Every structure is written in structure tokens, then in C-alpha cells.
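Lab notebook: predicted structure, single chain.

Context: the supervisor wants predicted structures on file for every construct in the current expression panel, including those that have not yet been purified. This is the next one on the list. No modifications to the sequence; it matches the entry in the shared construct table.
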Amino acid sequence: MKKLPLVFSGCLLGLAGAGNLMLDTLPILSHLLSLTGLILWIYFLILHLFSWKETKQELTKPPLLSGMGTFPMAGMILSTYVFRIFPHLPIVAQGLWWFSFLLDWALIVIFTIKFAYPCKRVNSTPSWTVLYVGIAVAALTYPLVGIIEIAYVTLIFGFLLTFYLYPLIYSDLKKHPLPLALLAQEGIYCAPFSLLLASLVRVGGESLPNWVLIVMILASQSFFFFVLTRLPNILKQGFQPSFSALPFPTISTAIALKCLREF
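Prediction complete. Output recorded below exactly as produced.
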């Protein structure tokens, strides 16, 4: 395998999320998934740094750049795994978390300036939610750095951008439907509300009103079942690199339900 394509970062996020999901029930499998994800994450980073000229050219495409939010998201989740295997060296895990967190914000700023600024805006796609709402992973993993204010800021940011982006994406896709190569991005629809629900439970805990939980559960599950109805159409198009968008949305739905069970 000479080169992992940029879209593979979605698979890295899926591995990280699956490892986190199975921690309590299947610890050996959880360790295997997380370790595989961590090794591939580091390999992915080094590989694209050494071929930066080519990678930089690929990142001029809006769908690819917006989808790259999955890479720092995976890094923040994997940092919790690093802390579990090196509990006496918290600086290693925290260093990975801060690197991923700041990289996520950098991607948001760069993408906004290049492709989302009002006078330059291109047609939005579901991958925009990965970039702008995915930062809420920081609220899910904030205990590693112990700064709850970060959780509040990223959670509020995620909520605001969710309610802004969904109508925008719907409007743009009515005029300019997704090309077949990007159709798998429809799987992303169920990720934002599931991620926000899991992060909300992590931050709010028992203080959350029941009606808030009910609304969030209904929203996340509704989009999950919507994605299930779209899967046959996505799969019949044949394999596409954009299939890497499918793992984490379904895993994030499961993580949200797991958080509710623990709640």
C-alpha cells in the first residue's frame, strides 16, 4: 500500500470510534481497533507530510478539504486510547489531543476563508458538517485535558452550525445534487445529532432535562433511519472512495445510545 488517500481519514475515525465504543464490552477487540487506528493515523500523517506537494494540490478540492475534519477528530478520540496505555505519561496523550484540536480549528478557518466565505462560497455538501460540527468531539474527550470551558464552546459551536448547515445543505443539494462519486456522503447526515447527543450527555450529565434528551434522541435516530433508507441507492452505485464517510456516522449513533445507557 503505497499511499493512503485523503478520504481514508474517514476510516481512521471509524476505527477510533469503534475502539472507543467497544471498550467496556469487548476490551480486546477495542484494543485491537484502537491500536490499528493509531498506527494508521501516524502512518497517514507521516505519509502525507512527506508527499505534501501532492497532498496540498488535492486539498484544493472543497469536498476533500471539508472531509479532512475526520483526521483531527480521530486524533482526539485516539488520544484517550494513548492515555489508557500510557497513564503515567499523560503529556503524550494530551499533546496528541491539543495537536488534533488546534488542527481541527485550523482546517475550519482555512476552509471558511477559501470556500465558505460569503463572496467565495461554493455549493455545500454533507461533508461540511464533518468539519464544522465534528469539533464537538472535543466536548466528548475534554476530560483528558480537564478544561470544561472547551467542551462548552465546542458544543455550542457545534449546535449553532448544525442548525445553520442543514437547511443550507438541503437548499444547495436541491439545486446541485451530489455526484455519484460523493453519494456516500449522505451517510454523514446521522452523525451531527448523534455526536452532539453523546457530547451533551458527557458534559451535562444528570443535570440535563429529559425533554432535551428526548428531542436529541428523536433527531439522531430519525436521521439514522433516513440514512438506512438511502444505503441501497448508495451501495448499488458500486464502490467509491467516499464510502469512507459511512463508518463513523453509524458508530457515532451507537456511541450516543451507549452514553444514554450509562446516563
